[in-house]
Amino acid sequence: MSATYNWAYKPGVVNKYGININSSDEDTRPSNAVYVALYGNDLTGNGSRHYPYRTIGHALSLYGVSTYILGSGTYREYILSGGGYGINFVGDGEVIFDIAYNGVMFAGAASLQSLSLYNIKIKGIGDSYLVAVNGNNNVIRDCVFDGAAPARMGLISAGDTTFQFVNTVFANYVGVFGYNLYNGLGGVNNCTFINMNVVQVGKYSASVFKNCNISINGIGAVGYPRYCLFFHCNFSFKCNSHS
Distance between CA 69 and CA 52 in Å, rounded? Predict the structure, then answer.
């Protein structure tokens, strides 16, 4: 198979996420990255730009590298992951994780050190969700959650102030967003929430909410929402009690 995709994320090309991909020939997998594309092949591929793998799960099962570059398309997988290392998934083009069938994208991710998503859309039905990780340095940036929401993010360590949602859209989720996002949360910055059943707002900054039910818990160490805009929202307040 010859190359049929013009990869934007490759060695020597600067990207806005600052992700470094080690030098390699087109038909050789970089030492710190794996390429996956829907036109690829799990049997004959080798994870290079010329010969990507077909499925994310297969690529994860072979390597403990940090960065997985995903070609455009819709991925419908139930992925077993783990291994005690950190993972970056980078959408190279229009990449969609469709979790409507399984209700979850990752299983066993609690053993990961971190799981970061860049430029990926996660869509589901009802209370479908993305299971994330324990660990530090988690970043969700330039993503869209449509009918889905992250779960288990609250298991991050209390001392981690690096966890961030940045420039991400959350829409049409019927569950409660933010239920366990507080301890150690680095912040929700420049995000958009549309038609959300309940959003528990704490350390949120420069974000926009439209047609949402907003729950603001007792703030305390969690932090206040700052510089946010609210359109057609309902509010519920729960204040901390003091003796």
Answer: 10
Nearest to 167 by CA among 212, 216, 117: 117
Cβ neighbours of residue 120 closer than 8 Å, sequence gap 6 or more: 70, 89, 91, 95, 96, 97, 143, 144
Residue pair 67/19 in contact by the 8 Å Cβ criterion: yes
Overall average pLDDT of the 191-196 stretch: 96
**Which residue ranges make up each domain of the chain?**
33-237
| 27-65: pLDDT as tens digits | 999 999 999 999 999 999 999 999 999 999 899 888 878
Backbone angles phi, psi at 236, to 5 degrees: -130, 130
User: Which amino acid belongs to residue 241?
Assistant: S
Which phi and psi angles does 230 have, rounded to 5°? Answer: -125, 125
